Automatic annotation (TrEMBL), chains A, B:
Species annotation: Streptomyces gardneri
UniProt keyword Signal present: no
PANTHER family, sorted: ARGININE BIOSYNTHESIS BIFUNCTIONAL PROTEIN ARGJ, ARGININE BIOSYNTHESIS BIFUNCTIONAL PROTEIN ARGJ, MITOCHONDRIAL
Gene: argJ
Record CDD domains: OAT
Compartments where found: Cytoplasm
Annotated protein name in UniProt: Arginine biosynthesis bifunctional protein ArgJ
Pfam families named in the record: ArgJ
Length: 388, 388
């Protein structure tokens, strides 16, 4: 499953000792070909971690042979030494893979890191860990790789879609700092479809735009977000671009939903549907504004259908709407009609983890869905003690 | 003190029964002249409460005789009935004041409301309350008026600046939903200086731009924010515009600081200084982004000098900076230098309520200060049960 569901990939996940608690913390994914096409999307935060700067660069030629990922340290805001460490990690992967098979250069190796910002990685543990991981590479290593990239995730996340003769699979980690422009998420997707770098890039951008980019757990954008898609071409099948993009979207959608479902300290998963917007951009802007309203997030935690806070959030946007025509439903009950009191709020049942807020802008025909979480005392506790 | 520190004003604060707990909930402030000049600034939320729509309209001519304020209900998202209720409230004030003295029209009466959104006001209690308040109007009523506008405020907020023969004083309420474009704040300022409506407007805009508009407790913008400035001219002194603006700014600054100090559930007041920005707008944008980062707000609550979260917040802005030249100090310790690890974070002492974060963009000479609060379990508790 996971990144080894598609043919032409091996993976491993091991404990290198980067995490002080001895949990798995290093994953390696290798494309055994014949194709080595790849595409990636990265955080839009202007403060980018060293591995993001590195991986963006090595993806310039649209090819990757391997991805090495570590948890236990983000290698962000670590200056020139941090970049040297990322480079050394890629060199080490290239060296150990070359020793086992065809020559691999560091420029074919993407690096992804996650964990605390502003701390150098323990390279004396990481580099031997690369050797250990390479020794354990296997066509069945996908689950172990998915486990090794966890930070505060309570479960590992994988997803697979199998089509007629080809497969897209992947793994993701991310539990906090989930916001558009990606989140603190590391995602590696693999496929054995025969798709070139351009086709991969198009599919990946099309898929992330409506999945990972519409997840907004806590409004915070990470320095390390990385989503990679690698194609081995092993199946020999070249799917139509639309069909391929849809398969990638389905895997991304499933993984994104798993990220929200495991967000730090959350007790509710909030599906925000914005409908009848003048433009899709308007719908997304309104969805994000609702997703980021702390007062509303607290209300949802308290199972309080406080639609006034939804209207208050909509009112801060530049989207086209008339305040007197706004309608809001919570779990299907239209508690706000025409910008004022609607159905009885007592009718809203909020006992379950998933809560749907529908915001009807009455201004057009476009729509968008944004996923968010509630704001809880557990979130505060988890994030007030993270680095101490 | 408060709104009756300046000569030419009477005020009252009484319990009308709008709040179910019997606490004071209705305030009346009356300008006894000779001048009735006034200016106001209001929420920039596009979903505006009925009293905001009303008060904006009656201020068109730059004159006000009275302001009536209620807590216990925001009269926001209440449709045509809500607007009629605001109108009826102003009519009632005009009627009872006319019975006591010179004729007053409803168009000389501003209305401000605060409390839960989406609920109609109990007019059967509010209108008799107006009569009761009018009967208690006094030159010593400022404190009682300040007390009557409290919602979740733990203390009432007043401030006075006395200059050479004239005074600016005021009262404020606000404890949550504090964000730029104003917060859930109701503020009434009075002065006995002889200033016309244009001078008041200029002073008020100049003052709120660098005070109330730079308070960002929880990123949420209210539907009801109202800041009014009334001048009686009683002192007969016409101060220079600069001197007058500075006095208004000083009162606003003091009240804004009191709002942050009493924000719902907060345990820390965070002073965010952005320095060496290319423009003041850049400084404000960066300050707000830091102020709104939930992960950082949790870290500050945990007395964790997590500068990586500051950099992560800066990175989401469009301000001019080079990531490798950013410096961040927390309580004077430069924990981040040149975008990377700086002084030892163990040196940062965060035991006290006030925490200063200095973000040096190394891109110019402009600066700005934004005030925020930490994110706490108490905030979550208070706001997850507000309407239930």
């Amino acid at each position: 499953m996971s990144v080894t569901a598609a043919k032409g990939f091996t993976a491993a996940g091991i404990a290198a000792g980067i995490k002080q608690n001895g949990n798995p913390d290093l994953a390696l994914v290798v494309n055994t070909g014949p194709r080595r096409a790849a595409a990636g999307v990265f955080t839009s935060n202007r403060v980018k971690a060293a591995p993001v700067l590195w991986s963006q660069r090595v993806l310039d030629d649209g090819e990757l042979t391997a991805v090495v990922l570590n948890s236990g340290g983000a290698n962000a805001c670590t200056g020139p030494q941090g970049f040297q460490d990322t480079h050394a990690t890629a060199e080490k992967v290239a060296e150990v893979l070359s020793a086992k098979g065809p020559e691999v250069g560091a420029g074919e190796v993407a690096v992804a890191s996650t964990g605390l910002i502003g701390v150098l990685l323990p390279m004396d543990k990481l580099l031997p860990g690369v050797e250990k991981a390479a020794a354990e590479l296997s066509e069945h290593g996908g689950e172990k790789a998915a486990i090794a990239i966890k930070t505060t995730d309570t479960v590992h996340k994988t997803s697979v879609v199998t089509k007629d003769g080809w497969t897209v699979g992947g793994m993701a980690k991310g539990a906090g700092m989930l916001a558009p422009g990606l989140a603190t998420m590391l995602v590696v997707l693999t496929t054995d479809a025969d798709v070139d770098a351009k086709g991969l890039d198009s599919a990946l951008r099309g898929a992330t735009r409506v999945t990972f980019d519409r997840v907004d757990s806590d409004g915070c954008m990470s320095t390390n977000d990385t989503v990679l898609l690698l194609a081995s071409g092993t199946s020999g099948v070249s799917p139509a671009q639309d069909e391929f993009t849809e398969a990638v979207r389905a895997v991304c959608d499933d993984l994104a939903r798993q990220l929200i479902g495991d967000a730090e300290g959350a007790s509710k998963d909030i599906r925000i549907e914005v409908i009848n917007a003048a433009t899709e951009d308007d719908a997304v802007e309104v969805g994000r504004s609702i997703a980021r309203n702390n007062l509303l997030k607290c209300a949802i935690h308290g199972e309080d259908p406080n639609w006034g806070r939804v209207l208050s959030a909509i009112g801060t946007t530049s989207a086209a709407f008339d305040p007197d025509e706004l309608n809001v439903a919570i779990n299907g009950v239209w508690v706000c009609r025409n910008g004022s009191v609607g159905e009885d709020r007592e009718l809203v049942d909020m006992r379950y983890r998933e809560v749907t807020i529908t915001a009807d802008l009455a201004a057009g025909t476009e729509s968008a869905v944004i996923w968010a979480n509630d704001l809880t005392a557990d979130y505060v506790h988890e994030n007030s003690a993270y680095s101490s």
